[in-house]
């Protein structure tokens, strides 16, 4: 069966803040110049925003540039930050740390948002401008012209059984061809991974470094609710050599809502560490638990995030396509913010694309346009200036002082020199290579969840709304089926059963009674990508399941 093909001027992969901002900016420019530009956007979630998860405390700078009248348009930024708190936790106490003006953690002028709702609103604005949005369509394959340039993407075939045989509901995927394809898949996109290799885009940058962010939404006792309050901590329950920290945001919603979460750097060394259980343990701290007592947990989710900074950004353009947002990794790590930089990168990409599309004297060496001006313009923008200034903060945590060394570095070099120091620090290497063998590490004893403040994993995953069609080819693939037991279990005590925040991986006894095998519960997958990043053998390859599968977040 042939695949049906559609022709567009620009195809955008991923309806997050970056992809939607790119699509919106293209249609704005087309309207301003009375040009026809067909923009198609595909999104693997069944609804726009259903796979979006972030803290999120948003700097509105890029939104103000995209829609100066965003307030009149009803953008869901309802909670301006009114109070900013930062502290270092010990097991029993909290040491307050002053947030000095000019430090990255200052949130004056920012808004606490439910990013999924903002993304959904951006989707409405995009559709009103004429962007063709296809939710529930997962971009599974990059298509290429004979000259090697990107031709577009194809969505995956649907209606296939686990064994690869077609069902009665079988349908071929859709091909979308474009002059330029914009990849906005978010952190560790599976198509971007292929593009890095094909075009050698990571040749002149350091390996990307990541964190895993886990998040819950709670309704709490109204007397404890302080809309606009932002709290961050570092320290307990992590040791100083494990990068990470927490957030607790009070949202101004019709009900007393707080968003809380925990981030663990995926360059951690102890294979016994379990990010989910660290998060659950943190909630019992004397400075946190009182806020949650008497409350109800209503949502849970997790997502990997980029922490490499400017050192880890790959080449962003190639013939026929470009990378925007969290896909290449534009997160400002010490600010813990990437929405504003992602949106701005999408806008800059569209301005460069529009200029090329409407250039009557256009001469291109390849059929797919190579819009190199985008990367040049990004490097002249406030995005690059901001990321360059904080480039050394995350890698400064790799000294003997660990996270506290990073705080000292920030206080001295960032606060005084504003990132103008004449050196750039390096990361130690890829995150998966940082794990130590289990025999060299101490097992971590975690307390049992109490079912009121802390919870078990499976009841948590149930709150994510995650669902996949059971009878479909696996989307969590192994390059070699023997590696999990022969190396991961034997050397690292099976870290995938701990680093996965959704209970996808578990080692179960063989039917013969001797030894174990790795069982993959793919239907639990929340699409966080941690397994693809942290697997010490790099044996797990995450690919997209059928469109519409995965979590069903509501304003996460």
Automatic annotation (TrEMBL):
Query: Which terms does the UniProt entry file under GO BP?
Result: fatty acid beta-oxidation using acyl-CoA dehydrogenase; response to oxidative stress
Per the UniProt record, which EC number(s) apply here?
A: 1.5.5.1
Q: Which cofactor does it need?
A: [4Fe-4S] cluster; FAD
The name this protein carries in UniProt is: Electron transfer flavoprotein-ubiquinone oxidoreductase
Q: Where is the ETF-QO/FixC ubiquinone-binding domain?
A: 210-305
Tell me which GO cellular component terms the UniProt record holds: cytosol; mitochondrial inner membrane; nucleoplasm
Q: Which organism is it from?
A: Geospiza fortis
The protein's job, in short, is: Accepts electrons from ETF and reduces ubiquinone.
Oligomeric and partner information:
Monomer.
Q: Name one GO molecular function term.
A: electron-transferring-flavoprotein dehydrogenase activity
